[in-house]
């Protein structure tokens, strides 16, 4: 297996994908065993003098800001429907594994990249065809980037979380490409015109959101990395995270003890006070006879290619890159990352090692496990075989370690992220002018040195960083905001998961005469604001086999604590008549509402079709590809892909398209037919950001496929004594890649048992819980799981451990649960026609 490059919205790379070119690297292990430690040459001193004096720039010569390209003349012009070429440019596509020479072509509708690395018999470079292509409407962000300390690159981010790092021969070419992209006015581009990283951070309001606890520590650090130019595509500019904890030896991690947290006002090299004097003396006494090398505290960098490969040694493609860096062999076992406590202790005791961490420590436990069974050698003195990373005593497993440190940085750590140090001059922006080096061999050597040393990111803040509010201060501010806006209608309710002990229920009677089976709602923004300002869709099915959906009036202002009479208005009720498949149990899985609340997708018809209709009840089209009745549907976060499951045991991934952005027309084309089940498909989940399509079945399995290529990945089958009596009626997927399986076992005597299983996206079992009764529905929201059962119990659990943190009794079977986007309310639909709205009880007035 190898690490996939797909990311979620927090920029986590969570997924492993099958490595079809897997190499066990036995030759690299044998070469290492035949190599004595003193045969490895240290070229760091030699590399430090590679840069000639003529190529070293002073701080006044090195401009810290990009030119203001792209700000002028951006008037929108009507584009011809015919695709026309706007600009072409030679460039390099920079990836982890390679730097690919190619040609970038931008047209009025698409962006193309053609690979030019292949050659014919005469040695001439030729085009090998299309390497990638995407529509301009997919472009979300364009950032200026540096490559080898030169301001010559762009990084393009798409709405499906993919990104491309392109380096150009000269900064002027980059400016031309950037202006061309902006002149086309991509509809989903977040901003226009150039901004320096400092201006971009200020305009984003990110720091203020962090201060007010509106974003987590992890998301804040990840966004700072992105804005400052750190990227997964370049090992010398890999995202960097700090060591948060200093206790890696205790039996239990005591987060109430401030001593377990690192002092982030100091760089890692002087956490030990004994090292501080030596580092200061080294800085004061250093003097380059040639006057080229400036004074510096540390000769190594806190993040460079060697550091990343040190931590990611056990996971491809980093294993291959590590071997390439070590001249075709694994490094000696004693110098590998074999123990987390030993690694921290070595850095604490010496001033020469200043490695910080990488983001994977906080979300990817697989990088600590030698799942590929590489031969990593034996330690010199103890003769122990190096395999999985040795963890602190307070961590039960790699998964437990990752969960604990993620929870620490997500919730527990209250300090500021502030460090200050002076590194080797070759790592700073604008320090070296590669264009001044004419000798190609010399220039290549300098580029290699820059890659090995690492690159210091752009300084984002020049003023002191503000301190974060305490939880109490943030809660008082939210409470005060609620009390001050109760009379004007702009209510911002508190997060239900932050106040589980204060949850209160109130109801809206949707259908007093029919049995309500499920609810779907679509809106943008806060739930209560949505009830007041935008239409709210509520769908319910009656016992007479017809679908009724209600649309609240925008003229009336229903308040969620009172019954809404507008729901009973016949004018606002629409009926969808249809012949459902006989005996089919209608559930929320059979219905989808598009994110713009304009179209409805319905399955379950006798003719095996999926029908697309407007919210006024007009049928637009019927999609017929399954050989039996459709049992479940799901839509991805971007509204681009849909997935369907059927009685025919297959699933289909559909591409949703609206011609020319038409608001009154929509269609879908089948992309992939997915196989792997032996019985009826009960539930499907699709997540295009993680490139994951999940399906569960009555055969007791959950099958994982990819979205983009439809490839089979793995089958997850919960352990059971008698798998023939095992079914998986429902599944859920978190944005962090956690898979929740609701499994049901029916014994020969007729007794049923119910279980919740938690798996990682890579199939690793994490947690198990036994349930009291059958679930009606469940949903995952962040780090929490919300379930509703047939006895009317609405339960909120911690996702990682399934620990119950809140329970409400609604006294009637729960058919569907839904958490609003802002996490301010939980909606639960009961079988008796009531919509239960759960929110935080009215807060006390702030003092």
Chain-wise SSE layout:
Blueprint: E1 2-3, E2 16-17, H1 26-33, H2 44-47, E3 85-94, E4 99-107, E5 110-115, E6 130-135, E7 139-147, E8 150-158, E9 163-167, H3 171-183, H4 197-204, H5 206-211, H6 217-228, H7 273-285, H8 305-311, H9 318-325, H10 340-349, H11 398-412, H12 440-453, H13 471-485, E10 503-509, H14 527-533, E11 537-541, E12 546-551, E13 573-577, E14 591-593, E15 599-602, E16 610-614, E17 619-623, E18 630-635, E19 641-646, E20 651-657, E21 667-674, E22 681-687, E23 692-697, E24 702-705, E25 712-716, E26 726-733, E27 739-746, E28 752-759, E29 765-771, E30 775-781, E31 784-789, E32 793-798, E33 804-809, E34 814-819, E35 825-830, E36 834-840
Antiparallel strand pairs: 1-2, 3-4, 3-9, 4-5, 5-6, 7-8, 8-9, 10-36, 11-12, 12-13, 14-15, 15-16, 16-17, 18-19, 19-20, 20-21, 22-23, 23-24, 24-25, 26-27, 27-28, 28-29, 30-31, 31-32, 32-33, 34-35, 35-36
